[in-house]
TrEMBL record, chain A:
<comment type="similarity">
    <text>Belongs to the binding-protein-dependent transport system permease family.</text>
</comment>
<feature type="transmembrane region" description="Helical">
    <location>
        <begin position="30"/>
        <end position="52"/>
    </location>
</feature>
<dbReference type="Pfam" id="PF00528">
    <property type="entry name" value="BPD_transp_1"/>
</dbReference>
<feature type="transmembrane region" description="Helical">
    <location>
        <begin position="155"/>
        <end position="173"/>
    </location>
</feature>
<keyword id="KW-0812">Transmembrane</keyword>
<dbReference type="InterPro" id="IPR050366">
    <property type="entry name" value="BP-dependent_transpt_permease"/>
</dbReference>
<keyword id="KW-1003">Cell membrane</keyword>
<feature type="transmembrane region" description="Helical">
    <location>
        <begin position="211"/>
        <end position="237"/>
    </location>
</feature>
<dbReference type="GO" id="GO:0005886">
    <property type="term" value="C:plasma membrane"/>
</dbReference>
From TrEMBL, chain B:
<dbReference type="Pfam" id="PF19300">
    <property type="entry name" value="BPD_transp_1_N"/>
</dbReference>
<feature type="transmembrane region" description="Helical">
    <location>
        <begin position="101"/>
        <end position="122"/>
    </location>
</feature>
<dbReference type="InterPro" id="IPR000515">
    <property type="entry name" value="MetI-like"/>
</dbReference>
<feature type="transmembrane region" description="Helical">
    <location>
        <begin position="12"/>
        <end position="30"/>
    </location>
</feature>
<dbReference type="GO" id="GO:0071916">
    <property type="term" value="F:dipeptide transmembrane transporter activity"/>
</dbReference>
<keyword id="KW-0472">Membrane</keyword>
<keyword id="KW-0812">Transmembrane</keyword>
<feature type="transmembrane region" description="Helical">
    <location>
        <begin position="134"/>
        <end position="157"/>
    </location>
</feature>
<feature type="domain" description="ABC transmembrane type-1">
    <location>
        <begin position="95"/>
        <end position="304"/>
    </location>
</feature>
Length: 294, 317
């Protein structure tokens, strides 16, 4: 899980400013609490097999609808007596898995296309048509189509979310490339005879890294919410494997009898995305020279 | 202006054609023989051939594509392989529900978002700004289908304030219709409200420090007039922009919201079609969504150039 990498690499593009960015982040108590929640979520997800008090799919029919606080079932159980805490831990695994896979997909395709669209005028229009085309399919519709063609699975959900996020990446990288291309140091490199690949890889990409990272911190929570939605609709992970979304759709049927089974997974999703959004916001502020004004 | 409009229109048509090709190819990439699916239990080779002939499945792909496009252009989107009902009718019945839900959600989100954004900008550094910011962050992070579940559980079931599910057509019972839709619209609008609030706040902050506002203040206009007449005007652009950008999220959100509140809209049609592997319906639903999306984006861009003349000049929005 590379979540921690996101923050660690935050300073890389602005090598000289890295410490200042980190310092600004650490001065912000909200950012610190966000990082703590993220760290906790990652630990719970990665070490779920060792930390979870029960198997997430293990049913205990004699313990069905146990309220939170029941001995051995800290967050209670669902209609089949499955431990809500264990299912949340494994659900976090699915959430982070899809969040990272989807964003990695969108970056792997979107960053090169965005760089090329901003750098080579000739293919800009072509890539714009591609963005328009992808944008014509809202992510859920894309996911529905993909589920119809390839079947519903966690991997296909991640692909659908990743594809839907490509246009956003292309737009941001493209406009940053356009901006950087007009700067003197890039012109100087071109005058010195540097090849296109060198200029893009050595001068433009490293300087565009901070916008890409900020974009990723927005895209990961969006992808996590997307996974929850798809799994909720039955288009994502397949039962009995737990996901926070499927837990909610299961719990919908007996929500009046066992509200905790519906409340807890939602709180987990909310805390996770809230932490990402808080970290993303403060990272953007820390990277933004105008930040003091906002 | 005219060149911009024509260019934008042409661009939309190209996108629509590409989207149609993608949908057509996508449906042909579906696993399994559609003739077998249509035949159901009847696997007799003779009837399979008849089905292939009837649906033109033995024609070349180009002919099939032309059939598909020319039928779609005439409003004939085929028949459901489950119910035999005309897909066009099914969509025509479902679409008004979704449109009403979305429009209500946009209204709710605009009022809440612009209001909170203005308060946050004007009450800079006070508890009101802090509260508005916190609410926006929460609105961005809360999964709206979960919020919907909670609302049903606590507002509808426990307190009985709203119906938990179901739908009444507007023309049969306008009050009942709104009573059924207001909670779903609120839920669907939360994320949108959060985005609008943040954008309104930041554009208000920009505007409030701009020279023309200082001029207006120096002229002796009351703060209320300054904010209302000058600064707030920009928020209309903000709302239009955000709605344009968030349209995909809104459509996706509507699908889920309908599912939770059991509204007989487009989203329910879509999800049911996937689970029943009703390919003609899936194909039509995807195509109609793409077409609607392209059309609305076109309208948003046009509206945009009406509201903000600078965009016409730039030309490449």
């Amino acid at each position: 899980m590379a979540i921690t990498d996101v923050t660690v690499t935050a300073g890389t593009p602005l090598r000289s400013n890295r410490r200042r960015v980190v310092r600004r982040m650490l001065r912000n108590p909200l950012a610190i609490s966000g990082l703590v929640v993220l760290g906790l979520a990652v630990v719970l997800a990665v070490f779920a097999p060792w930390l979870a008090p029960h198997e997430p799919t293990q049913t205990h029919l004699d313990q069905a609808f146990a309220p939170p606080g029941t001995a051995g079932y800290l967050l209670g159980t669902d209609d089949l007596g499955r431990d809500v805490l264990a299912r949340i831990m494994y659900g976090l695994r699915a959430s982070l898995h899809v969040g990272l896979l989807a964003v990695a997909t969108s970056l792997a395709i979107g960053v090169p296309l965005g760089l090329m669209a901003g750098y080579f005028r000739a293919i800009d229009a072509l890539i714009s048509r591609f963005t328009d085309l992808v944008l014509a399919f809202p992510f859920l519709i894309l996911a529905v189509g993909l589920a119809a063609i390839r079947g519903a699975s966690l991997g296909n959900a991640a692909i659908a979310i990743g594809i839907a996020q490509i246009p956003g990446v292309i737009r941001i990288v493209r406009s940053e490339t356009l901006r950087l291309k007009s700067l003197d140091f890039v012109a100087a490199a071109i005058v010195e005879g540097a090849g296109d690949a060198w200029v893009l890889g050595r001068h433009i990409l490293p300087n565009a890294a901070s916008v890409i990272i900020v974009q990723a911190t927005v895209a990961i929570p969006a992808a996590i919410l997307g996974e929850a939605v798809l799994s909720f609709l039955g288009l994502g992970i397949q039962p009995p494997a737990p996901s926070l979304g499927t837990m909610l759709s299961d719990a919908q049927q007996f929500a009046a009898r066992a509200p905790w089974a519906a409340v807890m997974p939602g709180v987990a999703i909310m805390l996770l995305t809230l932490a990402f959004n808080v970290v993303g916001d403060s990272l953007r502020d820390a990277l933004d020279p105008k930040a003091s004004r906002r | 202006m005219r060149r911009y409009l024509l260019g934008r229109l042409w661009q939309s048509i190209v996108t629509l054609i590409l989207a149609t090709i993608v949908v057509f190819v996508g449906v042909r990439a579906l696993p399994g023989d559609p003739a077998l699916a249509l035949a159901g239990e009847d696997r007799d080779p003779e009837s399979l051939r008849a089905i292939r002939e009837q649906y033109g499945l033995d024609d070349s792909l180009l002919v099939q594509f032309w059939q598909f496009v020319s039928h779609a252009a005439r409003g004939d989107l085929g028949q459901s392989i489950r119910t035999g009902e005309s897909v066009t009718t099914m969509i025509a019945n479902a679409l008004p529900v979704t449109i009403e839900l979305s429009v209500l959600a946009i209204l709710v989100a605009s009022v809440l978002g612009v209001g909170a954004g203005v308060v946050a900008a004007v009450r800079r550094g006070r508890p009101a700004e802090w509260a508005a910011n916190a609410l926006a962050l929460l609105g961005l992070s809360v999964p709206n289908f979960w919020l919907g579940l909670m609302a049903i559980l606590y507002l509808s079931v426990a307190l009985g304030l709203f119906p938990a599910s179901g739908f009444v057509p507007f023309f049969t019972d306008p009050v009942g219709n709104l009573h059924h839709l207001i909670l779903p619209a609120l839920i669907l609008g939360t994320g949108l409200a959060a985005v609008i609030m943040r954008q309104t706040r930041s554009s208000m902050l920009d505007a409030l420090s701009a020279d023309y506002i200082r001029t207006a203040e120096a002229k002796g206009l009351s703060p209320r007039a300054v904010i209302g007449r000058h600064a707030l005007r920009n928020s209309l652009i903000v709302v239009v922009t955000i709605v344009g950008l968030q349209l995909g999220a809104l459509i996706s959100g509507a699908v889920v919201t309908e599912r939770i509140f059991a509204l007989p809209g487009f989203g329910k049609l879509t999800v049911d079609a996937v689970f029943q592997r009703d390919y003609p319906v899936i194909q039509a639903v995807v195509l109609v969504t793409a077409a609607a999306y392209i059309l609305i984006n076109l309208l948003v861009d046009l509206l945009y150039s009406v509201i903000d003349p600078r965009i016409r000049v730039r030309g490449d929005a």
